[in-house]
Amino acid sequence: xxxxxxxxxxxxxxxxxxxxxxxxxxxxxxxxxxxxxxxxxxxxxxxxxxxxxxxxxxxxxxxxxxxxxxxxxxxxxxxxxxxxxxxxxxxxxxxxxxxxxxxxxxxxxxxxxxxxxxxxxxxxxxxxxxxxxxxxxxxxxxxxxxxxxxxxxxxxxxxxxxxxxxxxxxxxxxxxxxxxxxxxxxxxxxxxxxxxxxxxxxxxxxxxxxxxxxxxxxxxxxxxxxxxxxxxxxxxxxxxxxxxxxxxxxxxxxxxxxxxxxxxxxxxxxxxxxxxxxxxxxxxxxxxxxxxxxxxxx
Length: 298
Fold this sequence. Notes:
298 residues, alpha/beta, globular
């Protein structure tokens, strides 16, 4: 169970690094298996290169001090800038580097392999995780995934939306660790998921770890919790999605509902974000439906 850094933003869209340091302290103390930066929830596409480096250094220092694994996203719509981010990230010796396939134009299978080959060479001995979300221009299916894993041994993991039993059977042939959305982890673990870069951790970092442990100790009870997570999402996430809010805005909304850090709901311009009254309306339902995530009772 891994959690993402969420950018605490000032009214002018600058990053509040004091609030970010406090957020990292909470995450480090929560029992999570690792932290990462620069996924979709981290608004990586909005960062200047200076901000990117500042965030990397902050996370790396905190996780090294706590002896906690960390991963750095080095993604960028430009392959050239992504490779440069990989080079700078690798210098901090993260547990892995996450990359997307450059996504202004869809790439052929050969181009995807060429991209990952160069990324691997640039990363040196740092393993790679391929981030291939549903909105990616280039969708990497199970057959291509297996080909990439054979050709690029530095590739060790996949961050994906997952799929049905047949999809997992085919994707598992790659030998990669498969990480899926947090709110589906209980149902997808029996199919072959290994963990999550988790939106449930955005709602409750410590509670998400307890739920992960329950998934492995009491799968039936964990599935019942997943059902109630779905009920909460239907009540409060689905309407925000229907209104056009992005995934970063939804993850910040979850963190605000969980009330464990002062990340705020603001996301960088021009994206819209949830309002405080929407957060206030969701908090009672979160604690009513999911007391296990908040009260530390199991």
